[in-house]
Amino acid sequence: MITLYDYLPSQNAYKVRLLLNHLERPYVTKIVQIFAGEGRDLSFLLKNPTGAVPVLELEDGQVLAESNAILFYLAQGTAYLPSDAWSQAQVMRWMFFEEDFIQNGLASLRRSSRPALAPTLRLTPRHRRRWVSRQDNCAAISISAGGWDYPISAGCSLAQPLEAFVG
């Protein structure tokens, strides 16, 4: 059985857990307490020299780090990854876009929605716009994307709801 080295608050590990569950693929979870220093243990650094989660360890001992690489690996041969090169490239484009432009903003929104952290949160104007629009995920992503038209699902693109904020 595969093993997922995980830290529950990690949005990157969450993406992997989500796909594993959608695929109904059994796996074992090993929690790595990143902020307690477990990511710096030699045994974990041998799996991922960056000390970050998620890390996927296969049954044969091969180890794969980086959430999007893990998602790409797990999606092979499933409905989550098309078979033609152009469509695969579009999936990869979205994954890179999400990693570069969306992830940090959504992480700050998720963190700021936790009541214990809210009083200490210092929102920049950009994050404040995301906070105000968090009820509409497409709008929050549009602001993160600077209004670029990146389709995320049928009937919704990143630029679509931005008009409500700039119009």
List keywords for this structure.
single chain, 167 residues, alpha+beta, Glutaredoxin, 2 domains, four-stranded mixed beta sheet, two-stranded antiparallel sheet, 6 strands, globular
Please state the structural category: alpha+beta
Q: What is the overall pLDDT average?
A: 74
Spatial order of the strands forming the largest sheet: 2-1-3-4
Q: What spatial form do the alpha-carbon principal axes imply? A: globular
The overall strand count is: 6
Q: Ends: how far apart?
A: 52 Å
Outline the structure in words:
By secondary structure, the chain is an alpha+beta fold. It has 2 domains: 2-75, Glutaredoxin; 85-166, no CATH class. The chain contains 7 helices and 6 strands; from the N terminus they run E-H-E-H-E-E-H-H-H-H-E-E-H. Strands 2-1-3-4 form a 4-stranded mixed β-sheet, with helices on one face. It is globular. The termini are far apart. Residues 112-123 and 128-167 have low confidence and may be disordered.
List the helices and strands and how they pair.
Layout (H helix, E strand, L loop, with lengths): L1 E5 L4 H12 L4 E5 L10 H4 L9 E3 L5 E3 L1 H9 L9 H28 L12 H8 L4 H8 L6 E3 L2 E2 L5 H4 L1
Parallel strand pairs: 1-2
Antiparallel strand pairs: 1-3, 3-4, 5-6
Short summary:
The protein is α+β, with helices and mostly antiparallel strands and 167 residues long. The protein has two domains: 2-75, 3-Layer(aba) Sandwich (Glutaredoxin); 85-166, no CATH class. The chain has seven helices and six strands.
